Amino acid sequence: MSTLIVESPCRLQGTVNISCAKNAILPIIAATLLTEDRCRLEDIAALEDVKVMIEVVNSLGAETNLDGANTLEITAKKIERNEASYELIRKMRASFLIMGPMLARTGKVKISLPGGCAIGSRPIDLHLKGFAAMGANITLGHGYIEAYADRLKGESIYLDFPSVGATENIMMAAALAEGVTTIENAAEEPEIVDLANFLNKMGARVKGAGTDTIKVEGVRELKGAAHSAIPDRIEAGTFMVAAAATRGDVLIEGVVPEHVKPITAKLKEMGAEVNEYEKSIRVNATERLKSVDIKTMPYPGFPTDMQSPMMTAMCVAKGTSVITETVFENRFMHISELKLMGAKIKVDGRSAIVEGVERLSGAKVRATDLRAGAALIIAGLCSDGPTEISDVYHIDRGYINIEEKMKGLGASIIRV
Ligand code: UD1
Fold this sequence. Notes:
Layout: E1 4-6, E2 13-17, H1 22-31, E3 38-42, H2 48-60, E4 63-67, E5 71-75, E6 83-84, H3 86-91, H4 99-106, E7 108-112, H5 125-133, E8 137-141, E9 144-148, E10 156-158, H6 164-175, E11 180-184, H7 190-201, E12 205-207, E13 213-217, E14 226-228, H8 233-245, E15 249-253, H9 261-269, E16 273-276, E17 280-284, E18 293-295, H10 307-315, E19 320-324, H11 334-340, E20 344-348, E21 351-355, E22 360-361, E23 364-366, H12 370-381, E24 383-384, E25 387-390, H13 393-396, H14 402-407, E26 413-415
Parallel strand pairs: 2-15, 3-14, 6-7, 10-11, 18-19, 22-24, 23-25
Antiparallel strand pairs: 1-25, 1-26, 3-5, 4-5, 7-9, 8-9, 11-13, 12-13, 15-17, 16-17, 19-21, 20-21
Helix pairs in contact: 1-2, 1-7, 4-6, 5-6, 6-7, 8-10, 8-12, 10-12
Bound molecules: uridine-diphosphate-N-acetylglucosamine.
The site of uridine-diphosphate-N-acetylglucosamine has 21 residues, from α1, α5 and α6.
């Protein structure tokens, strides 16, 4: 199992290109199950999570071709199996996104319960409530969920929480349902808009994506489509924070500045200079950052996926910062690792109180989840002495060539 070693502190400088968004491409791969035609996804990043999603659609009978690691073609001419195994769902919770497309296309799906997760219990009740409201017959037993429906029926569905996954799953199911489905209190994330754009290219009738009310008028069938997913706002945010925390000067290219507004706003409040261009952002910090208070919220609030990288910036900022996690319970696993590196953090319920120190000190730490791993790389860049990060597979799930991209900015980082 590989380890990343951040050898010494570094002021990041230069230009980095952002890859396509993991959280956009995963539901889009699931959506290709809605048609028997060929779909073509361009400029994709062959991340570990993307590979798992490909494995999932393959296991159901789709034919896939990942050409040059950048273009993915998927043809789900025939669905040969209706069951997604425990092994695949356990590898990646987002595999659950096949439930909506499978139910809509074949009227039948059996899928393992996603189970627990390092960042909280993450239930799927909202997905299931949506399918049930649309007429699906759902049974749970022996760790599996089975759902049947002749043809799903459009319904008005109010989500108790604007869940990203539930909004996507219901949108995909509704695309082939009979009549109009209205999703209220829907998630508004840019990845939802991207999925809606892809579905509409396939011939679906989705309106309102990006607002809290989405209307989907079901159609009888969908056709193949080509698409290039949006840039990864979390990868972009990670480099923005890394640039600011290391008092660096980095041009982040291939980003939609609007999508990273909450990060831009907080970095400016911390004293970094952030300049937005049409498709790029430059982050420049000459002084030590100042403390700031942050609360994670659904989009357009501050993203929970940026909570841990931002906490690292707070660890080396001047003064005391408070970060409150409202989206996931138990998303503070990185704190014990940051403390090993000399960070001063106290947890009070859902809030972490971070007293900034001048420098962290390198240590042996563990990436407890994907974003926690990114936070530890940034911590390594702000530390004296080497930082050895284990369980790097978590980082590879969502960041492509992270060490190459960091090296391109001057970081001394190796994989062993
Ligand atoms: C997606 C993202 C993840 C991000 C999260 C929040 C993907 C593949 N993953 O995850 O990176 O951190 O959005 O921005 O896009 N909830 C329920 N019942 C449900 C569904 C969710 O209670 O049926 C709760 C969850 O436990 C959590 C909150 O809602 O507390 C947000 O979850 P959700 O928006 O669904 O996140 P994901 O789609 O799993």
